């Protein structure tokens, strides 16, 4: 089973995260940031990943440290669960429309970090959540629907990129290594 458990403790945060790639979308998420919990739920549900996240942080200062450290942990969990990237499709993309939003996410899950983030952010907050943290999470909007569509598209792209393709022998790279 492709799964991973990550724990990260710093002076600012404590994160425990469990990921099952071949799940059903089950989730148990508690970050202390309700809107972010809602967005992580979209990743689990729309990507069919089982995801447990329990996080504490200095949210009285702001949400930045928690969001960033959860992003780091989720990235580490995918890397561990994919066990050298053997057999996966590697590339995924999704186009998700939601009301006034149309979001496109394309991903190469091959371990080369790069982000191009083009989203028009017209509001600084959705509830108590700073919208600038969406880009921070994707590294380590108009409204709620744009951000929600981004997380749903990310989930769909991750789901597509992590699928096993029986035609792939080893890793999908001409170098033989990702």
What would you say this structure looks like, in words?
The chain is of the alpha+beta class and 178 residues long. The protein has a single domain, classed as Imidazole glycerol phosphate dehydratase, domain 1 (Ribosomal Protein S5, domain 2), CATH 3.30.230.40. It is 32% helix and 26% strand. The chain has 4 helices and 8 strands; from the N terminus they run βββαβαββββαα. The strands form 3 sheets. The chain has a 4-stranded mixed β-sheet, covered by helices on one side. The protein has a two-stranded antiparallel sheet with strand order 5-6. Strand 5 and strand 6 form a beta hairpin. The chain is globular, with a radius of gyration of 16 Å. The two termini are 21 Å apart.
List keywords for this structure.
4-stranded mixed sheet, two-stranded antiparallel sheet, alpha+beta, Ribosomal Protein S5, domain 2, 178 residues, 32% helix
Poorly predicted sequence stretches spanning 5 or more consecutive residues? none
The averaged pLDDT comes out at 89
| Integer-rounded radius of gyration | 16 Å
What's the story with the biggest beta sheet?
A: 4 strands, mixed
Largest beta sheet: strand ordering: 1-2-4-3
């Amino acid at each position: 089973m492709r799964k991973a458990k990550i724990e990260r403790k710093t002076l600012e945060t404590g994160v425990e995260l469990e990921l099952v790639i071949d799940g059903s979308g089950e989730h148990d998420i508690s970050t202390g940031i309700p809107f972010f919990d809602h967005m992580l739920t979209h990743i689990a549900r729309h990507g069919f990943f089982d995801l447990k996240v329990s996080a504490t942080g200095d949210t009285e200062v702001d949400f930045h440290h928690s969001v960033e450290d959860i992003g780091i942990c989720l990235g580490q969990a995918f890397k561990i669960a994919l066990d050298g990237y053997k057999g996966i499709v590697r590339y995924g993309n999704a186009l998700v429309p939601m009301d006034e939003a149309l979001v496109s996410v394309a991903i190469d899950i091959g371990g080369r970090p790069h982000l191009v983030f083009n989203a028009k952010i017209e509001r600084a907050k959705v509830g108590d959540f700073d919208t600038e943290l969406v880009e921070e999470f994707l590294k380590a909007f108009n409204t709620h629907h744009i951000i929600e569509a981004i997380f749903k598209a990310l989930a769909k792209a991750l789901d597509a990129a992590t699928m096993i393709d029986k035609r792939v022998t080893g890793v999908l790279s001409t170098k033989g290594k990702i």
